[in-house]
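Hey everyone, long-time lurker, first post.

I ran two proteins through the pipeline my lab uses and got sequence/structure pairs for each. Pasting them in order. The first:
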Amino acid sequence: MMRIFAILAILVAWPACWGRLPGWVETHRHPGYPQGRYILGVGISEKDPEDAADKARLEVLRQIRVKVESEVEHRKEAFGLEGQEAVREQFVERTRQIVRGEVSGIKIAETAKEDGKCYALAVLDRLRFADEIEAEVSEKAREVERLLEEAEEFADEGKVSEALGSLSQAYELSWETSAKLALYRAVAPVPGTLEAVLPSRVLSGLRKVTSGIVMEKVSGDGQEAREGEELGPMVVRVTREGRPVEGIRVRFTYADGKRIDEMTTDPEGEAEVEPVARATGPGVGEVISRIVIGGLPEGMRLKGLPEVRFSYKVLREGIPVAVEVRGPAGERLEEVEGKLGRALGKLGYPLDDRSPIVLKGEVEVQDVKEVQGFGGTKVLANVRLTISVTVLPSGRMLSSAESSGRGMGRDEESAVRAALRKLRVDRAELARALREAEPAFSEAAGELARMHLERARSALREGDYRSAVKELEKVLPEAEVYPEARKLLDEARARLASRPLPTVVVLRPDATGWIGHKTAEALRDMLVTALVRTRKVEVVERERLNDVLEEQKFGTTGLVDPETASRIGKLVGAEYVLLGRVVRRGVKVEVDLRLVSVGTGKVVAASSAEGLEEGLRAVAEELARKLVEKVE
């Protein structure tokens, strides 16, 4: 009788329990996995249990990443990152990669299903995982200590290049070890006393070895050459305590930062380069040689290292000139621009898009007629190129010149193309027009430079360093304000380098026509890859985006309007949102993209491209390049 009553009691209570979700779904806690020992993550999916499990694991990783980045920020001075914001960003990215690639041992502890949704609980044993990291950090820390001792022995023996080689390895390894130490401190229940050889200590060793290095000019200073001509050898000698240092890498660059080459010192401590003359100032150029320390992050320069500057005079036969040629429909005619450029080069006028003297060419189709020949009916076309020598910023025309060409083809279009190929530029007429424009160059260059400088100052006041750099790069070396513009340009570039990259979130494009969901999803992945490869933007992780979309019940396709896109961007912490559509037309695929500013909700850039479906990756790369240029 008691057994019957027990069965009845269970049957009565069963409906009340049926379908009830476990407590961990709401609380993110579980009595079997105390938070002091475990990191818990909950995943929810309307698809299937595996998707819920993936989201639960990602939630664990997200928690670890947040803790790691907090640890890096808290201890950035110890990691050797104080005052090196660009380097700090690289360090943070390295720790993110370590979290993504090396966190193992996350297991799915429980699952549940209710109302068509799947739930999963992921857990990571903090103690076990921390023990694995502790052993690895300790081993690598010992290796860094060994490299430091080795470098000290080399330095005492006067083997400077070998000492720097050991220190470079030590620095790179200390970075990796410090990143894993940050991961250890973020995960371990009780961090304990685990330490590593920090990058700041290795940097001290580098400064000690390099403090006695001297670099001096041997020959090559004060040369003269025309723009684009090869200069004679520029030679430097590297010594330490009066003795030549062999095997030291020396990097030669122009004063504007463009790299020339990287050479290694010979047994006499000498390194040389033969650069091409390139103006970096009004009628002058400058080459800088600096010692290169391997293993340092990109953008990081060790203070106190010697440098040598070579100056030379740039000889010019004519003023710099810009060229722009348009066809009958307003399209740019690059082939004709190339002809003009070659003619200018032979006359001694260098091409420079920054010049206030612009050759504006306009092509007009004068006469098109059918002619009879041995091959049947052909089309003959005559074209005329009118060149107006214009001065900026006023746009006043100073002089003009004309050229013509004649071509034959099967139809009017091919005949016009043939006529353009046969255009003959009258160099004598062109030289006459340019001579008339030369007196206006100096005043116009100064006026244009002052305009760019004022715009740059305004952009700097607003914190828009990208716009400031663009304006300052347009200032010609011949302008009187060029030295001031170069100084501001260096400051703007330094500020820009210290700021984090613009953040973009990529939504799946809307797929219309015969294009399916998978193709649109593939295009999104290709766009993400192409944007990351530019190294000029940071892309929001897909998992982070999906969590927000699901939580907020947003659509996931390009059908969202700019205002909604802006809201999504704010929720994931992005500056821009990329959305659009992909359509199949015949055998071709057309892609239209829009870049929305999260701050204003407005479309700041739009771009389109087309290609075959198997060439979709090339389309994605082309669009990514165009959009990044507009963001910059």
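...and the second, right after it:
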Amino acid sequence: MRIEVQSDRGRYAPAIILFTLSLLLLAFPGRCGAEELFPGYSPEVGTQAQRVVQAAGPGKEKELASEVRRLRKRMYSHGVLSINVIPDHVFRRADKEGWTDSLASTFRVIAEVSPLSAQMWAWMVKEDILHLRLSELFSDFEGLSGALRGFGPALVGYAAWIISFASAAVCWFAVWVSLALFLRSRPSLELDISRVVRLPMREYLSPLAAVVLFLLPLGAGFGLAVVVCYWMVFSVAYMRRAELVLMSTAIILLATLLLGGSMLHLLHRVTGDAPKEGWLGADGYIPQQWPAEARKGHVPVGGAAPYWLVEFSRARAAMQMGNSAEAERIWTGLVEAGKDLPEVYNNRGVTRAIQGKKKEALSDFEAALAKRLEDGPALWNAYQVYLQVFDLEQARLLQPLAWDRIRKISPYRFRPADMEAGEWLASPLPVNQLIRVIVQRRGDLLRQAGEGEYYRMFFRPLTPRFAILFLVLVWLSSVVWKIYSMRVWVHNTCRGCGTQTLVVEIREASDFCNMCHAQVGWGIRVGEERERRALGIRMHRNYVKAVSFLVPGSGGLWAGKEFRTMVYVAFLSLSLAVLSLSLGAQEAGDIVSELQSIVARWAILVTVVLWLAGAVWGIRSFEKMQKTIGITGERR
């Protein structure tokens, strides 16, 4: 599914918009799998839409505008607001014929008949940024925002992508924290394993035992959230207080991951059993099958889409196919069922006006205005009927408000002076009602959490009821174990030189060994003691460098820069999340796939830069800390 000026604010606008564009990659509904170019539309609309696609091309804007004008008249005579698939067909032609660089000017003309195509607006925003067309950038961005606000599937898909993006960022953050803390604790953990278990040949078997402990949950097939909690629990006895904050943050974020996965599952259930075809998209995407819905007047069962939502979409689809009588029947049923929304009244009025029932149509438009005084489509339609029945006084009174309101409906860009009699403005799916349905089902978040794919991926083999309790128990047991570990002897690894000693009480008090406190450096005596210390320092330095490269930024933990490290990890996790969700375009020659590929390339570049920067920063921070305590590599 599918996003400058001299002031300081203007300088940052492109960066903000680029980031927003990256959040829109999957925010657009999938296309119907039918073989026809324009399935579900009346023959005259579908035929004219094909003429628009054929007329598109570089330098053909004037001819294209003429065909678009004819199509708009046919669309509005059937209550069709947007044919979202037109930009996709035009893009395929351009990609095949090699004129994608000229698409922006073509899309500006097509926007009149495909205003709800979010991927088309996203492409134009991208082109504006690349070519620094500042005068058009904010206008196109407003069109993109309007398409997302006004098109139900795009809004649902956008919400699903945002949740997926946040979940991916949480996963990367938690994985980084658990790996960094485990690797930070590994040298001490190995010695404590050999001390507690009394292994033979401990210098060989202790490292092997630590590796087994690390890989055990992965081999057991546990979910990722369970694995990272396992790693953090084994590291807790060796953590400093600031590192405990890192761990607590990761656990809280994992709890939000549980809820985020449930929300994704809930969005899927609201959109029904046929999300691929985008069944909510009556203005552009016709389903091959309708989702399961509750019977009239009953509460939806098992998370199915509510009755009125499915019926609203059926009625809009009937309008698109030119079956006005069937659409009127469905709208009337919705009114009788108590869903007397302004959108329902306005759309029923359109179907009646198309059939020539002007009196009944006017009654519906007036009912819509009674419920929402400044409803743009209802105002325009009522104004049209007043003109047709020669009630010129009412038309004169209504004209200024009607013209003003429809001009402000983004992203349609209506021009009242150019509109003709018989161009009826239907109402799209009421997005606020869709949001209300989702909010009303918030009580299902925990109850249905175990049914979602995210839950099985991250929290198996836990039950949904135990998942939150498990995270709470992990945090509480970590706190208890931390308090208890201050009263027992455990090994501690000196952050400066890697010397390992048995310590008790607060870890911060024993971060550095006595020789580092005295700034001894490599050692004073010549001989075995000096050589042993020099070898230990070299091994410790190489270990920290290797860990900091494999888990970038983790050198900051050894340097005592935990909070700055957390900020870096947050940025790295966001970059990795964008990369995770943008890799793998689904279909060549598709607008969304092309945008996805562009963002993927930038995400790879940003991630590589952040990775290398984090590794270099971590190593330099560690080396600076060593120099501060006198470990410079030279004899003192």
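Reply from user beta_strand_b:
Welcome! Quick read of the second one: The radius of gyration is 32 Å. The chain has three domains: 8-150, 286-440, 486-636.
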